[in-house]
């Protein structure tokens, strides 16, 4: 996987899947912008881990739900590093509740971060990638955006929206050699799934043909592949990394 000389921006890279993706892209030789919102010290830890492994990275604060802040971040990165070759939209949140109990605030928070956040960064990075006539965009969706999940109306809507935006951007940007793909993880061991009770975990495991939750590294390997030259003929696709849960 040769990503030497590439500048990669990974949103929400202070922990979990985002951190694993940042590490994997760096292992391939990319310089990684480790975006974070509130967790400065965790982002610094990601940067330290990359540097310890021999890579290069810089932490960059930005709330992806904020349109103007995303414009500033992308402009700032471009001023400093001149190009952005890989964008990974990983930042995401959950605010689970049953449909009839879900508040407007719970719905809006998830849409603002997961769906609008992905739109914001793609909006500003695409202009640069069109100029460069190259680029890779990888959006973190979820199997929940494909098959739905009780208690996650907001999250499922945001991830289904990410899939629709991915395909649309893929069509708009293909003529200039830019690929746009989504990864739909199943259940991956991170802070996001740590909250699940033992009973729910057992129920989930029963639905996974491979019989276990995934690790952030599995998702990171798929992201690095989609970011590489080896994936230059793949665009507009949704790659499930889910132990066979949805097929
Ligand atoms: P996590 O909760 O461990 O990490 C999410 C990261 O996003 C954190 O670093 C958080 O600070 C950051 N973030 C949240 N809001 C942000 C904002 N407004 N601006 C910038 N950064 C922000 O979650 P995890 O599990 O690593 O998930 C990463 C992505 O993968 C998310 O998009 C999630 O929806 C998706 N995913 C995760 C699955 C899982 O089983 N863990 C399954 C399917 C999808």
UniProtKB/TrEMBL annotation:
Keyword match Nucleus: no
For the keyword Lipid metabolism, the answer is yes
Indicate the quaternary assembly.
Answer: Homotetramer.
> Which Gene Ontology molecular function entries are recorded, alphabetically?
3-oxoacyl-[acyl-carrier-protein] reductase (NADPH) activity
In which family does this protein belong, per the annotation?
A: Belongs to the short-chain dehydrogenases/reductases (SDR) family.
Tell me the name of the encoding gene. fabG
Enzymatic reactions: a (3R)-hydroxyacyl-[ACP] + NADP(+) = a 3-oxoacyl-[ACP] + NADPH + H(+)
InterPro entries reported for this sequence: 3oxo_ACP_reduc, KR_dom, NAD(P)-bd_dom_sf, Sc_DH/Rdtase_CS, SDR, SDR_fam
Q: Name one Pfam family in it.
A: adh_short_C2
Domain Ketoreductase: where?
Answer: 6-186
State the function annotated in the UniProt record. Answer: Catalyzes the NADPH-dependent reduction of beta-ketoacyl-ACP substrates to beta-hydroxyacyl-ACP products, the first reductive step in the elongation cycle of fatty acid biosynthesis.
Specify the pathway: Lipid metabolism; fatty acid biosynthesis
Q: What is this protein called?
A: 3-oxoacyl-[acyl-carrier-protein] reductase
Keywords recorded for this protein, A-Z: Fatty acid biosynthesis, Fatty acid metabolism, Lipid biosynthesis, Lipid metabolism, NADP, Oxidoreductase, Steroid metabolism
Entries under NCBIfam families matching the protein = 3oxo_ACP_reduc, PRK05653.1-3, PRK07231.1, PRK12826.1-2
| The organism's taxonomic lineage, starting at the top | Bacteria, Bacillati, Bacillota, Clostridia, Lachnospirales
SUPFAM superfamilies of this UniProt entry? NAD(P)-binding Rossmann-fold domains
On the tree of life, the source organism's domain of life is: Bacteria
EC code(s) of this entry = 1.1.1.100
């Amino acid at each position: 996987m040769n990503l030497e000389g590439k500048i990669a921006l990974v949103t929400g890279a202070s922990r979990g899947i985002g951190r694993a993706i940042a590490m994997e892209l760096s292992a391939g030789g990319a310089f990684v912008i480790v975006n974070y919102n509130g967790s400065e010290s965790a982002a610094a830890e990601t940067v330290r881990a990359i540097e310890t492994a021999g890579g290069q990275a810089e932490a960059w604060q930005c709330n992806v739900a904020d349109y103007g802040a995303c414009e500033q971040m992308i402009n700032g990165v471009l001023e400093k590093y001149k190009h952005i070759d890989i964008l990974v939209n990983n930042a995401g949140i959950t605010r689970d509740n049953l449909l009839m109990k879900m508040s407007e605030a719970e719905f809006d928070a998830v849409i603002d971060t997961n769906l609008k956040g992905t739109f914001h960064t793609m909006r500003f990075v695409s202009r640069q990638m069109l100029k460069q006539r190259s680029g890779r965009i990888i959006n973190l969706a979820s199997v929940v955006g494909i098959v739905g999940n009780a208690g996650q109306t907001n999250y499922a809507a945001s991830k289904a929206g990410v899939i629709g935006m991915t395909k649309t951007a893929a069509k708009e940007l293909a003529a200039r050699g830019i690929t746009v793909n989504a990864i739909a993880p199943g259940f991956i061991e991170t802070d996001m799934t740590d909250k699940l009770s033992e009973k729910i975990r057992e129920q989930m495991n029963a639905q996974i043909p491979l019989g276990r939750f995934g690790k952030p590294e599995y998702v990171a390997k798929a992201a690095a592949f989609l970011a590489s030259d080896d994936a230059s003929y793949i665009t507009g696709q949704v790659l499930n990394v889910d132990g066979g849960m949805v097929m």
